[in-house]
Amino acid sequence: MTYKIENIVLVLGEKSTVNSVRKSGGNLINNLVELHHEDQLASHVLSDNPSLIVIEESFINGIADKLDTIFSKAPGLRFMPIAIISDDLKNLTNSFSSIICNVKFIETDNGGKDLESYIRQSLQKSVRVKFWGVRGSTPCANSENIGYGGNTSCVEIEIPGKEELLILDSGTGIRNLGNHITQYQNKKITGQIFITHPHWDHIQGFPFFKPFYDRENEFSVRMPMQFRGGTEEILSGHLTKTFFPVTLDMLDAKINYITQEETAEEFSGYSVDYMVANHPTKTAIYRFKIDDYTIVYAPDNELPLSSSPLRFLDKFKEFIRDCDILIHDGQFDMNKYQERIGWGHTAWERAVEVAKECGVKRLYITHHDPDSKDRDLDEISKDLERLNGNSFTEVMLAKEGVDIKLPVSA
Ligand SMILES: [Zn+2]
Ligand SMILES: [Zn+2]
């Protein structure tokens, strides 16, 4: 058993639905599990770690609550796409809360074409970028934040055919990632962890990553050189007995601490380089090249409103030009930004403007302010879509539990 995508599909419905899912997915489906009663759902979702669930409309009563309960036990499963299918979708959407964020309602009255394309899109071999934590500054555990998520920065990139984990930042979101992996993985775990900088919101989850407490596991942890030392000095300073009962030498896994240079480095299956962000401590903007895709991760970076004397903006624009994915700081809106110039964060409007100018294909605004409630972020989200939907392949606010798929050739 592994936590990686294995293209297991659960179908809750009549025989005819099962057959049409099987036909639509074809050889993309490795294992199709037929369920004919709602009560079977929870145990299968938890044990099978499916890649997709398809639920027929007539089985939908009470399903939202059931899924909510399942996800509270296993938050990593929130990334799983769920298709609710019906030949008439009216009145269905209201029974689902915003917590279940990957639900898609699909009408089947067009001969199943939409269902087929959704199944294929969900299961095709892809580089997957998963948001485990999207909050800036401090975690916020309020009910009004739960839709977008209250955990701080953590992103996972999953590369097809690659067992090794690729993790960006170790904010509190990394705890759910670790729990998810240990729930489904029964063999050695290896990984590379790239920390942008040691502000609390990017390292607070570090000692809560369960795979660190197994001597079989192996990781490398990187961050840029800081004023007070390299990666090991900084993290051991964070984990001293004064602040936390666990010190670095109490972690069981073999961990290699590396101070990241500003030069390109090759790994099997990808390469990475970084430029220094405009932020109060030395902070990396990481750029990954995977397959033919370029992914830039800049959760903490202030984009000034005009070019600074240091030509930072020019360098940044060159660095992100034509990238496939830009995950960028948009902690404030323009009004709030005017009061916080120089704090090291960006107004989302400015991030959109610069990304557009540089030909970024998909833009994800992250590092949401802890004071931004779901309804505030929903408003921004609507504006983003309305004003900029046509300028990007996708533009949205990053949300915990959402993954982005970049298809790769088989
Ligand atoms: Zn931050
Ligand atoms: Zn920071």
Give me a quick take on this structure:
Helix content is 26%, strand content 25%. It is of the alpha/beta class and 410 residues long.
Q: What do these coordinates show?
A:
It is built from eleven helices and 19 strands. It has 410 residues and is of the alpha/beta class. The protein folds into two domains: 116 residues, Rossmann fold (3-Layer(aba) Sandwich); 282 residues, 4-Layer Sandwich (Metallo-beta-lactamase, Chain A). The strands form three sheets. It has a seven-stranded mixed β-sheet. β12 and β13 form a beta hairpin. The longest helix has 15 residues. The protein is globular, with a radius of gyration of 21 Å. Bound molecules: zinc ion (ZN) (2 copies). The site of one zinc ion has 4 residues, from loops.
Which class do the helix and strand fractions yield? alpha/beta
Domain count: the total is 2
Bound molecules: zinc ion
The percentage helix is: 25-40%
